[in-house]
Amino acid sequence: MKSPAQRAKLTWNADRFEALERVRTALQESEFEPLYASYIRYLELRERGLRKQSFSQLDVFIGQIIADPFEIRLSIAQHLIGAIEGSWDYWPAPDNWQMPEQMLQTLIGPIWCEWREREPANPEAWVYNFGNQSRDVDGKEVAFLLEPSHPRYQYAYLSRLCGKLNYELHELEHIETILCAPAYFGELVGSLAAVAGAIGDNIADEVVETPPKLVELANFYRDHHSDRGTFLQELLQLGRQDLVDLYLLPAKRWFRVLPSPLV
Questions:
Q1: How much is the CA Rg of the chain, to the nearest whole Å?
Q2: Residue 203: helix, strand or coil by DSSP?
Q3: 66, 162, 175, 184: most buried by Cβ count inside 10 Å?
Q4: Which run of H or of E encompasses 211?
Q5: What is the per-residue pLDDT across 206-258, written as a single tens digit (0 to 9) for each?
Q6: What is the dihedral of CA 168, 170, 173, 174, to 10 degrees?
Q7: Which of 214, 198, 209 is nearest to 166 (CA)?
């Protein structure tokens, strides 16, 4: 009889188990293998479905680093993230098998909070959003605003904006309006247009028309009055089924050349 981990590998978790194996192999072959011994052991046990034992090893790894001076903790954390982030499906959001909550809360989050205090103008201290408890500050937006010409920060912020805009639009044909208020929708569209402009010649052909269509949609929504019927009815009366059907492709589809670590 197969273990729970073996059964999971054959179903929807197969890709995540493969990612654990890739990360473990890469760290074992690196010159820093002794440093990551407990983390590698965590990965091995997690692959086998032994959660309790794996988390014990993760605690050992965290305990070896947590009392080190800031510069050492940051250097180790940056190197580790550089080694594993290419396996994150939703970069810059980490995979919670490779970087579980206890690791984020006790090690990575505090390091990044201190880093932002020390170097508030460094976009790398913001882009992952580690340890950011503020609902008023979007680390991905801050990273983009600090260095708008850098594809990493364009991608990270664009990914967030595409998700938000698709959410606000997804009930248009059912409740016959956009979910959020016109002013907020206009802000989201303006931000996306700014990112698209920053991407410039690296923008993919299949999304070139998306920003101007969103601007049109935002303008129609801003100027809509209820005496014209629902917003959906107004769009259809204008013959703008294309705006009703508007869907934002994932951020990976917006770039001719993807930034690291997404290549």
A1: 22
A2: strand
A3: 162
A4: helix 210-223
A5: 999 999 999 999 999 999 999 889 999 999 999 999 999 999 999 999 999 99
A6: -90
A7: 214
